[in-house]
Amino acid sequence: MAYAKEVGLQTENVQLFSASAANYTAECLSYVGKGVDVIAMNIGIATGARVMADCLQQGYQGKWSMMNSGFDQAKVAEVSGAQTAGSTQGFPWWADDPKVETYRQAMKKYSPDTQWQGGNTTSVWATLELFKKAMETAKPATIDRASILTAMYTVKDETLGGLLPEPVTFTEGQPSKAVGCSWLFSYNAGDENPKSLPVEGTAGNAASGDLASTCIGY
């Protein structure tokens, strides 16, 4: 709420939702009555989907802001009428890029039952790709803890061609820098895929198209 005020947004309140609640009618009617335009869902998607469905049933017509693991394309798609805007620190799985197409094809072939349309899964993929590149660069003769650490320290200003939201560097004896960039998108129930929101200025990872990341506030 403090950051929202910094960027000129009017805020209403913080509302707690119990996962065990039978419904969320009272909370939803409160937001509808106050004319709230956007509800930020910092909540697990299982409960979040129920809240969304209840609020839409009570007449809520605004959007839902969903970040990282709070967004699940398949579950949002099941909530008819849901309109969302969000961010992910795992690369956009819908991007029209050969590297992302490799990801999609691999998931469809080797893990078809996995819900791979989400930032959690793409984050894991990018992490493994980063590990692979580090090992290929270092080419250690022996694979052990020390050689793996040495290999990871060869990573300098790496973006994997846009699979990472910003340049990543690992330095011995120093903590990793917190990642401050992400990919912004919108998604409405019924859409085939999310849509990337345009980047203002230079992309955080110097990529283009759907892989261009945003670093607002950092």
Question: Could you please describe the fold and organization of this structure?
Answer:
α4 links the parallel β2 and β3. The protein has a five-stranded mixed sheet with strand order 1-2-3-4-5. The protein contains seven helices and five strands, in the order ααβαβαβαααββ. It has 218 residues and is of the alpha/beta class. The protein is elongated. α2 packs across α3.
Radius of gyration: 20 Å
The largest sheet has its strands arranged as 1-2-3-4-5
Beginning-to-end CA distance, first to last residue: 17 Å
Kindly name the structural category: alpha/beta
Structure in a nutshell:
With 218 residues, the chain is of the alpha/beta class. It has helices at 2-6, 25-33, 45-57, 73-77, 98-110, 119-138, 145-152; strands at residues 38-40, 63-67, 83-88, 183-188, 195-196.
SSE order and pairing:
Elements: H1 2-6, H2 25-33, E1 38-40, H3 45-57, E2 63-67, H4 73-77, E3 83-88, H5 98-110, H6 119-138, H7 145-152, E4 183-188, E5 195-196
Parallel strand pairs: 1-2, 2-3
Antiparallel strand pairs: 3-4, 4-5
Helix pairs in contact: 2-3, 6-7
